[in-house]
Amino acid sequence: MSVRTARPADAATILELADAFYREDGFRTGRQRLEEHLRHLLTSDDARVAVVDERGGIVAFAISTSSYGLENGRIAELEDLYVVPEQRRRGLAQALIHDSARWARTIGAAHLEIVIAPNGHDVRHLYHYYQARGFEDEGRRILAMPL
């Protein structure tokens, strides 16, 4: 198992995994939009797309992005993290979290954040999972205005 930077040639495989992830978790973003956004992220200086390569096949991915704000300066967000079901509980997510944190440090980010979106599911286990890996609940809520 190795964590590596995704390449544009990995786009089709990552798109398959992203589509499965979004269907599994109830996100509504369509496949065409996912593909458009993924192609942008793969070449963006403000993003890190990492994959777990298991014997020549991609079995997990993580996408982190960065932004700059008044309160904290540069921050990074681990936006997407997915491991194919048959590969779970092997430490692959942990490896991708470490990779995202390493990237965040290299760009000078003050924090690595993660948003847990329930999408109608019980996600208490995710709070415990991420808190056990160093994430802290600051009590903030995210409100979004569709545009």
Would you kindly provide a written description of the structure presented here, covering whatever features stand out?
The structure is a single chain. The protein has 147 residues and is of the alpha+beta class. The chain has one domain (2-131): Gcn5-related N-acetyltransferase (GNAT) (Aminopeptidase). Helix content is 35%, strand content 27%. It has helices at residues 11-25, 31-43, 92-106, 124-131, and strands at 2-5, 47-54, 57-69, 73-83, 112-114. The protein has a five-stranded mixed beta sheet with strand order 1-2-3-4-5, sandwiched between helices. Helix 1 (11-25) packs across helix 2. The longest helix has 15 residues, at 11-25. The chain is globular and about 40 Å long. It starts with a strand and ends in a 16-residue tail after the last helix. The model has no long low-confidence stretch (mean pLDDT 93).
Kindly summarize this structure in a few lines:
This protein is 35% helix and 27% strand. With 147 residues, it is an alpha+beta fold.
Average pLDDT: 93
% residues in beta strands:
25-35%
Radius of gyration over C-alpha positions, nearest whole angstrom: 15 Å
Going by CATH, the architecture would be 3-Layer(aba) Sandwich
CATH class division:
Alpha Beta
Helicity range? 25-40%
Predict the CATH topology: Aminopeptidase
End-to-end Cα distance: 40 Å
In N-to-C order, the SSE pattern is EHHEEEHEH
